[in-house]
Write a structure and sequence with these properties.
Largest sheet: none
Number of helices: 4
């Protein structure tokens, strides 16, 4: 069996699960709070990517039968739960209350709106170059034009 290097934050019960499966591994505890915070940020990126992949798989398989669609949707739910778990932990570690987060969400919705209108920004003259076009990954080529 090939050794795979992970060097990533894992859930608390994963070492016991690996032991029960007879899998050889090496794990350690974060050296300090600073390392833990950085690994949480990396874990958030990992979980967000996995959530995106699950969502894309679901969307690409909408024509499948009901059972298959349900299986893809269940994977989306699992990945969203993982992402939310990391967000909850980040709130705890950075001492941010859920109320504070919800207040900020409401503030942003009031100032900039939500996503109910499904608006796609195709381009904008941006003299300050605040947001590179690929800052959050490649643009979705399947987006339809709307006015």
């Amino acid at each position: 069996m090939a050794r795979v290097d992970y060097n990533k934050l894992i859930r608390d019960r994963i070492p016991n699960i690996l032991i029960a499966k007879g899998i050889d591994f090496k794990a350690r505890i974060c050296e300090d709070d600073e390392e833990y915070k950085f690994t949480l940020v990396e874990k958030l990126q990992e979980e967000a990517y996995e959530t995106k992949q699950a969502l894309l798989s679901y969307l690409e398989n909408l024509d499948n039968d009901k059972a298959a669609k349900e299986a893809y949707l269940q994977e989306v739910v699992k990945e969203l739960a993982d992402t939310e778990s990391i967000i909850i932990e980040l709130l705890k570690v950075f001492n941010i209350s859920r109320d504070t987060l919800n207040t900020e969400i409401n503030k942003k919705n009031k100032e900039n709106g939500g996503f109910d209108d499904k608006i796609i920004l195709e381009w904008a003259d941006d003299p300050e170059h605040k947001l590179p076009p690929d800052a959050y990954g490649p643009v979705n080529p399947t987006v339809k034009e709307c006015h």
